[in-house]
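Explain this record to help learners:
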Amino acid sequence: MTMQKTITVFIVLLLLISSVQYSCKESTTKETGSVDSIFQQPVWVGPSAGQIPYYSRPDGKLIWYGHQLISNTAKYLGPKGSVMQITNGMNCQNCHLQAGTKPWGNNYAAVYSTYPKFRDRSGGIETIYKRINDCIERSLNGTALDTTSKEIQAMYAYIKWLGEDINKGEKPKGSGIADLPYLNRAADPVKGKTVFVQKCETCHASNGEGQLNIDGITYTYPPLWGKNSYNTGAGLFRLSRFAGYVKNNMPQETDYHAPQLSDEEAWDVAAYVNSQPRPSKDLSNDWPDVSKKPVDHPFGPYADTFSEQQHKFGPYGPIKDYREKQKKSVSKN
């Protein structure tokens, strides 16, 4: 084959590959589609900070400020915050990875499309403002922002911008945290400690305190327990949320294409981390209808006969089966 023919064939192949990739990518103005292969549905990937319309929209600067608050919360709102000092020093993106844009990384994909909505935890309709403040009070163990403040308005603007192209009520693939299958046994903190030492300790330190940046203001790797970590009211204090989160995102640089933890390792390390001391929160107003508590909610009372220990660590299958039988019994009557 001559050099000219070789080059021609190469160019044709490149064009064919490009056309296949384009046809499989979700079409959005922010290029938020991503696919594993041509046989799978697109997975939501949020737009980058470089796509924020800083000058082209009236709310562009507010959106940018919201991104900054979420990616570097401690700089503005932490113990040494430049605006106010109301949080524990963690950043929102320590839990909502890549400023809420990473697939299965506890992202914000479906927030704007699904709020306001009724939530069983509060027993009422919640707005995005309420959801933001819940995170500040629970995951950042802090004090709620005034909903008229520039800071909460900026975070709202950023979250809205991320999800404004998604149809109302829709929850795209890759939203939030992936659900892992339940184990047929209880999650084991002892086994989880082995996983932590082998795969987590390098970044989060041996006693879970994380690693601060050189500036001493924000964390490179956040604390997983202790006085500066999330409190007992945070979503990640539920084992299913923590296990699903670490499965597709940890250790560092992991994503859902190539997880480094097995399902069992993810459940066990969740049990270990959430067995460690952390700030507590008054949850007396949560779950006014106790029958709506998730199977892994770690605090009673419950509308079933299973122990608090089993609700915290599992196995969850028997609890789920019991609840399904109760629903069928009620529906028959």
Summary: The CA atoms of residues 12 and 18 lie 10 Å apart. The two ends are 79 Å apart (CA to CA).
